[in-house]
Amino acid sequence: MESINLISTFAEFKELKNIDKATMAGVLEDVFRNMLQKLYETDENYDIIVNIEKGDLEIWRNRKVVEADFLEDDNLEISLEDAKKIDATYELGEYVAEAIPMSSFGRRAVLAIRQNLASRIMDLEKANLFNKYKERVGELMNCEVYQVWKKEMLVFDDQGNELLIPKSEQIPGDFFRKGETVRAIISKVEMINNSPKIILSRTAPEFLERLFELEVPEIFDGLITIKKIVRIPGERAKVAVESYDERIDPVGACVGVKGARIYTIVKELRNENIDVVNWTSNPQLLIQRALNPAKISSVVISEAEKKAEVHLKPSEISMAIGKGGLNIRLASMLTGYEIDVYREGAEAEEEDDVALVDFSDEIEPWIIEEFRRIGCDTAKSVLKISVEELTRRTDLETETIDEVMRILRTEFE
């Protein structure tokens, strides 16, 4: 009866942890054979029959029939007299098979079996979890926040497995409460002290790539390829894309109508500004596109040193560098060249202008895109046009334009 209880307990655990029947039967047999080896120093004369479907287990011992005077090991041999008590037809040299009840092993042995079984199942589940997530590195996940600590955040997947998002893998500005849903990619899977540690990330470039695949059908279908992504999480990112269909504008497809597609991604990334550029194998052209919205006069490349000298008009320099140097830093990361900016000619130095994209923390990205659509890439280019003219040429409300003008004027006061 106790063997049946053991099987039932294991079956319940199996249903919970999704362990296949063959593995379950193998673990059970192995646990009982270990017990037999400890009790009798051998398990070779025992047959263990596991029936997972019925939920029972049988242990049969096989002993050779010998004369009573020659009996040396009553675990391996049985006297002819005792054999005939079981069945009168037994003869010398034959083998007697008899079922061994669980009660014969004693209470301590049964308890040890239960403990060993629980330990083996736990180890098996840890290995299964490790292997499952090892194959899913780079995959996007939706998890439930369970606990938020100073250095990391504990989340659960849809099966209740524990995953971690360290503070270093969270976007600056991330703030989650218990019970909320968080998106992240599987970044790293390690086995530490025989326990799997699954690390998720929201700062990896692959996280941004998965979001683009989710929001842009052309990327998911393979019509547009993401060639490279560079990020400064929470601040700015540059994404180089290429289309395999000449009829598809990769940048326009990624941005969407009125920035609808990219706005969803920007919102997920805590208003991280995203520049989408057309990929090209021409390094000079790629550098020009990467430094957008600045207008480049000329580029001189040194392949040996992987350096690029970029010459611009004085009015374009601030846009090329960007707020806090983010634009030129990301452009260097995207192109693989160390970029140095040089002032062109001897023009009188003008008051530095500021690129509109540098106001993304105060102005919605889709509003900035609307201004860029009519050729206004910088703060001064917007301020030069009247509110009435901007209202006429864009799809923006007058109140929205007034607020943008106020923000831009503040920059120069």
TrEMBL record:
GO cellular component: cytosol
Name the UniProt record assigns to this protein: Transcription termination/antitermination protein NusA
Domain Transcription factor NusA first KH: 202-279
GO biological process, one term: transcription antitermination
Intracellular or extracellular location(s): Cytoplasm
Family to which this protein belongs: Belongs to the NusA family.
Superkingdom, natural source: Bacteria
Keywords noted in UniProt: Cytoplasm, RNA-binding, Transcription, Transcription antitermination, Transcription regulation, Transcription termination
Domain Transcription factor NusA N-terminal: 6-126
Species: Mucinivorans hirudinis
Residue ranges of the TM segments: none
A Pfam family per the record: KH_NusA_2nd
Record text on subunit structure and interactions: Monomer. Binds directly to the core enzyme of the DNA-dependent RNA polymerase and to nascent RNA.
Function: Participates in both transcription termination and antitermination.
Sequence ranges assigned to domain NusA-like second KH in this UniProt record: 284-345
Main location: cytoplasm
